[in-house]
């Protein structure tokens, strides 16, 4: 099997060397427009030719990835000497619509197409001694993949007067999906000047935010295979109202603290007034208490006759007299 590419290459070079020799031309026809096929389906890459098929007739299909030169193409299958030889990574899924392809139809069938099958396919017919053309046709194939569910995110300053960026992106999708943001609900849509979106990147820029900018926003990702969406809720806050609310709360807390302090002080005063006065028991001594058996006498007594003051007998004298025995 290893001799096939070398043998086919020799025939191909032989065709190029004989370009100036007289003979018939090989004419290959392929679609002028790019082809597309949904992922998982079968793609038919039409290729037809006109020439007088001889013993040296050969057909090759090859593939090159997007963005790479044709010279880097990789073979998919060969037909030579009446035999078909699939090769490469697509060998299990590649075949010819007509086999053998000697009736002027060289269409390629590729089953269960995958995103990696997107690229350029080369249909090359070589039929010496037809040397006047290269017998080559190129077909661009795009495998269609529906967009995956996008992810929505937001960033920026979501306060009144600020700006916010809403982003939307699908990880897969071919062709690349386009994105469109819409505002949900009955709330008014922001003015065009404050709402700018990029359908390619999926970014929505909202400027000069107001409280009316709050709401739910939906991003829709769309391509030929369908549409999917995601949603997020934008909440715009007013920082000035926050400062006023903080001030009010602080004042209320201060008033509450002062009220509690006054209440405690008034209650303390009331309890102090209700407390009973301090009394003394029978065993307590007072400085002005009199000894038992002695009546309190006035400290000074006025003599009505002479106006002289008569001092009463002292307590010691009375005490002494009271202790003398009584004579019978």
Automatic annotation (TrEMBL):
It comes from the Eukaryota. Residues 22-127, 146-235 form the Ig-like domain. The lineage of its organism: Eukaryota, Metazoa, Chordata, Craniata, Vertebrata. It is found in: Membrane. SUPFAM superfamilies: Immunoglobulin (SSF48726). The keyword Repressor does not apply. Pfam families: Ig_3, V-set. Residues 276-328 are annotated as: Disordered. This is V-set and immunoglobulin domain-containing protein 2. It is a single-pass type I membrane protein. It comes from Muntiacus reevesi (Reeves' muntjac). The keyword Nuclease does not apply. Keywords: Disulfide bond, Glycoprotein, Immunoglobulin domain, Membrane, Repeat, Signal, Transmembrane, Transmembrane helix. GO terms for cellular component: membrane. Residues 1-25 form the signal peptide. InterPro entries: Ig-like_dom, Ig-like_dom_sf, Ig-like_fold, Ig_sub, Ig_sub2, Ig_V-set, VSIG2. The chain crosses the membrane at residues 244-266.
């Amino acid at each position: 099997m290893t001799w096939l590419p070398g043998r086919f290459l020799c025939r191909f070079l032989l065709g190029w060397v004989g370009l100036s020799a007289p003979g018939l031309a090989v004419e290959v026809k392929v679609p002028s427009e790019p082809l597309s096929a949904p992922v998982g389906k079968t793609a038919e890459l039409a290729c037809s030719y006109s020439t007088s098929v001889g013993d040296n007739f050969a057909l090759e299909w090859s593939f090159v990835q997007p963005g790479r030169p044709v010279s880097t193409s990789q073979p998919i299958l060969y037909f030579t000497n009446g035999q078909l030889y699939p090769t490469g990574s697509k060998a299990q899924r590649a075949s010819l619509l007509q086999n053998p392809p000697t009736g002027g139809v060289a269409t390629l069938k590729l089953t269960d197409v995958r995103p990696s099958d997107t690229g350029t396919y080369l249909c090359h017919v070589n039929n010496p001694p037809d040397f006047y053309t290269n017998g080559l046709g190129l077909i661009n194939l795009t495998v269609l993949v529906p967009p995956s569910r996008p992810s929505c995110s937001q960033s920026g300053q979501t306060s009144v007067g600020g700006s916010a960026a809403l982003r939307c992106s699908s990880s897969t999708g071919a062709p690349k999906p386009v994105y469109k943001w819409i505002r949900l609900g009955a709330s008014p849509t922001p003015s065009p000047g404050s709402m700018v979106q990029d359908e390619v990147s999926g970014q929505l820029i909202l400027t000069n935010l107001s409280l009316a900018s709050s709401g739910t926003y939906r991003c829709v990702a769309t391509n030929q295979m369908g549409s999917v969406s995601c949603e997020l809720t934008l909440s715009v806050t007013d920082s000035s109202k926050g400062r006023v609310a903080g001030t009010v709360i602080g004042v209320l807390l201060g008033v509450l603290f002062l009220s509690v302090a006054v209440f405690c002080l008034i209650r303390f005063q009331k309890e102090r007034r209700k407390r009973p006065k301090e009394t003394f028991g029978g065993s307590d001594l007072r400085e002005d208490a009199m000894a038992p058996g002695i009546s309190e006498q006035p400290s000074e007594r006025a003599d009505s006759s002479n106006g002289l003051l008569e001092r009463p007998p002292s307590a010691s004298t009375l005490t002494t007299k009271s202790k003398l025995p009584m004579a019978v």
